[in-house]
Amino acid sequence: MYLTIDIGGTKTLIALFSERGRILREKRFLTPEKLPDFLNKLFVQLQEFTDEKPKSVVVAIPGMVESNRPTWFGNRNWKNPPIYEEIRKIWPKTPVYFKNDSDLAALYETGFYPKNHAMFLTFGTGIGGSLAKNGVLTKDSADFEPGHSIVIWDKRPMEWEDVASSKAIRRANHNLDILDIKEKHACDLTAARLAIGLVPLLIEKHPEVVIIGGPLGETFKYYRKTLERLVKIGLNGTSAPVPKLVKAKKPRRSVNYGAYYYAKKFDKTIRGGRS
Question: What pTM does this model have?
Answer without folding.
Answer: 0.83
